[in-house]
Amino acid sequence: MFAESARKPLAGKKVLITAGGTVERLDPVRYLTNDSSGKMGFALAAAARDFGADVTVVAAKTTAKIPDGISLVRVESAEQMLEAVLSRFEQSDLVIKSAAVADYRPVVRAESKIKKSGDRIMLELVKTTDILQTLGERKTSQFLIGFAAETGDLDHYAMDKLQRKRADLLVANDVSEDGAGFNTDTNIIRIYDKDGLVEALPIMSKLDAAKRVLKLASERMTQTEA
Ligand code: CTP
Ligand code: CA
Which terms under GO biological process does the entry name (predicted)? Predict the structure, then answer.
């Protein structure tokens, strides 16, 4: 029994993960997106599956290999991701927001291809809904993990996001560091909780980093249940 729970620390848990970069369309052939590959999100999905969880991934644009044994929900935009996540939030035990969600989307999405006109044109953008923050406001018993890819003062930005979005854990990485950027197979992560830095991990595969994050989450989830 104890051996089984050590090997499958998320047995019986429903885990919802977002992955990839959202796509915000300007017209039928053009869009705004970002460099997220979705690799960290799918590494988390594979690790959570191996830990015994029932895993659903809401994925926007990704180049990652999709692991077996998980449920996949495809979305494009931040608004579609919000809807897909909210409809599954209540029945989830653990939600991990590793997707790179666009902060802004075009105000107008043209029905037909935008034709070339003047030498300069203006593109008006409007803020998207912050999905993690919305979940933080609505959460009851769900354990929430946020992500932050930064290029500056990691500790400061990570703690600010954790508090603002009411996440239980925040996983941050400096994307300007070698081996920690988008689309790499490795990561160098720092994990924070409301009291500050919990773990600063050395460079390792995204799968190993995912296991460390989930191990910590599963321990903390058990503590709050007890
Ligand atoms: N996030 C989200 N919805 C958004 C923007 C971000 O759910 N519209 C989530 C991300 O999935 C991530 C966390 O919030 O888990 C932090 O994202 P990040 O882009 O680092 O933070 P922002 O608050 O958008 O701040 P900034 O981009 O200015 O650093
Ligand atoms: Ca952002």
Answer: coenzyme A biosynthetic process; pantothenate catabolic process
- The rounded distance, in Å, linking the Cα atoms of 90 and 140 is 8
The yes-or-no verdict on residue 5 having pLDDT over 90 is no
Known binding residue 42? Answer is no
Neighbours of ion ligand 2 (CB under 5 A): 103
Q: What is the pLDDT at residue 209?
A: 97
Nearest CA to ligand 1 atom 27: 103
Q: Which ligand is nearest to the CA of 130?
A: 1
The residues, ordered by sequence, that sit 6+ positions from 111 with a Cβ below 8 Å of its Cβ are 27, 28
Residue 65 assigned ligand-binding role: no
DSSP 18-30: EESB--EEEETTE
Among 71, 22, 46, 21, which residue's Cα sits nearest to residue 209?
Answer: 46
- Structure-block tokens of residue 78: 């931040």
Kind of pairing, strands 30-32 and 24-27? antiparallel
Closest CA to 16 of 50, 52, 45: 45
Confidence band of 61 (pLDDT split at 50, 70, 90): very high
CA dist 67 and 181 (Å) reads 21
Q: Give the integer Cα–Cα distance in Å for 145 and 135.
A: 10
Which residues are known catalytic residues?
34
Among the listed residues 102, 203, 210, 218, the one whose alpha carbon sits nearest the alpha carbon of residue 168: 218
Which residue from 12, 63, 71 is spatially nearest to 185, judged by alpha carbons? 63
